[in-house]
Amino acid sequence: MTGEASILFRCDGNSQVGLGHVYRCIALADELLENHKCKIAFAMLSGEAGFEIVENANYQIYHNIDGASEENWLNDLINKVKPNSLVLDVRTGLQRSSLVQWRENGVIIATIDDPEDKRLAADLVFCPPVPGVHIRDWSELSGELFVGWEWVPLRRMFAKKHHIIPSDRLRILVTMGGSDEAGFTLKAIEALNELDGDFDTTVILGGAYAHPKQLQEALLQSDHNYKVLEKVSNMAEIIANTDLAIASFGVTAYELAAMSVPAIFLCLKNDHVLSASAFVDAGFAISLGIGSDISVSYFSNRIGKLLKNKIDRNKMSDLSSRLMDGKGAKRIALKIVSKLQQNKI
What is the pLDDT, as a whole number, of residue 2? Predict the structure, then answer.
């Protein structure tokens, strides 16, 4: 590159979409800033929790103050900021024609895990190896497609080795996303309360957790040991010291795989069920499908079986360690910078 490249990220983090999109964009932004000296800014429409994460990472945020359409707002912002590259991690219905226009004006466009039509107009498309990717029509793709576990952007903490604290008790992690409006945390506690045996459970709550009173009541009625954590900054360290995770499917699923932790997933919607099947097929997770459809007794039974089967848990850990190394953000950053260099930016 002939000078400092400017990168604009478009993502949101709220109770509807979760915070995973923001976290993986932060991971990529950190790589581009620290290893490639790029100038970083974010364009965000909604989500106080997402705003806070980006602000805490010391990145500038552009907001849609005038309430224009997303297309018009981004178009005006691109004309004002003049980014060399636009990274899109949203599913808000942006039109392919807008991406074509921005590319014609010299902006390199990358999309992350994008099922929408706009992906076909991007320069660089990065996707995990989930079934949805393979059934999409790519015949009109004008850029390059990168599919695989190695192209999943995660925060650096998930690419590091962490100290494992020995324990003579099984350690379970329950993590169900930012707001958990579906009440999966409560269902997991009910399921665990039906199990005998000695184990310790850590429950991680998102910043917008929707059921604090019910959770407190459920924990008071339990005979098991629970630790509840909020505003967690050392997620990788906690995951590293976990024998089994029970999680709502999302970006956390990839973080667990990168840390070689076997997992049981509950899914919020059918496309999550489809994506989770890639983890099941790869051998490092169990998916129970739509979480609201399963009974507590069935849930408890599946958890109990895996807790008792150390051989299966070890096999799952081994398989995930072979496929996920947590360095996807580094690889994506290199591809973006390489593309910028090709365009002599």
Answer: 46
pLDDT tens, position by position, 297-308: 999 999 999 999
Residue 195 resides in a domain:
yes
CA atoms of 304 and 187, how far apart (whole Å): 15
Tell me what percent of the residues of the chain surpass a pLDDT of 90: 86
210 and 317 fall within a common domain: yes
pLDDT at 272: 95
| Local structure of 254: helix, strand or coil | helix
Domain CATH number, residue 70: 3.40.50.11190
Residue 180 tokens read as 């958990």
**pTM, 2 dp:** 0.92
CA 282 → CA 113, 158, 172, 237, distances in Å?
Answer: 18, 19, 22, 24
Domain that holds residue 336: 6-154+326-342
Number of domains comprising the chain: 2
Give me the sign of the Cα torsion angle 117, 95, 140, 42.
negative
